[in-house]
Write a structure and sequence with these properties.
37% strand; globular; 2 helices; single chain; 126 residues
Length: 126
């Protein structure tokens, strides 16, 4: 069985800052505004949900042991990096090729410390 779509929810102390980052810096479109939860489209069937910790099921925590990875075309990694560098995004690393995995990409942090990865695969996912 397959799910029709997927939403990964992150919990924030400052929802407005998170929404500004994901919409204005990353350029993700708002798919649904639930007030205290903002659902942004990553692809036709994948979303990231940004939740005000005071209203959601979970709470924001200092430890962020989860990472959102955006898989893009190999020719788009450098453009994404330039976009995030221009916005002075924290934790931005230089793009590099990881020979072992065949992944070209880089890392950055969102306003509350969640890690983001932008990457492309040398061989497409199946």
């Amino acid at each position: 069985m397959n799910a029709g779509a997927a939403i990964t929810f992150f919990y924030y102390r400052d929802l407005a800052a998170a929404q500004g980052f994901y919409q204005d810096v990353l350029g993700l479109p708002l798919a649904r505004d639930q007030g205290w939860a903002k659902i942004l489209r990553l692809s036709p069937s994948a979303y990231v949900g940004l939740v005000d910790e005071t209203r959601g099921s979970l709470r924001a925590a200092a430890s962020k042991p989860v990472m959102l990875t955006l898989v893009v075309g190999e020719d788009q990694v450098d453009a994404w990096h330039a976009r995030l560098a221009a916005a002075k995004v924290e934790g931005l690393t230089e793009p590099k090729l990881h020979e072992e995995t065949g992944v070209y990409g880089f890392f950055a942090r969102d306003p509350e410390g969640y890690w983001l990865e932008v990457q492309s695969f040398r061989e497409p996912l199946v």
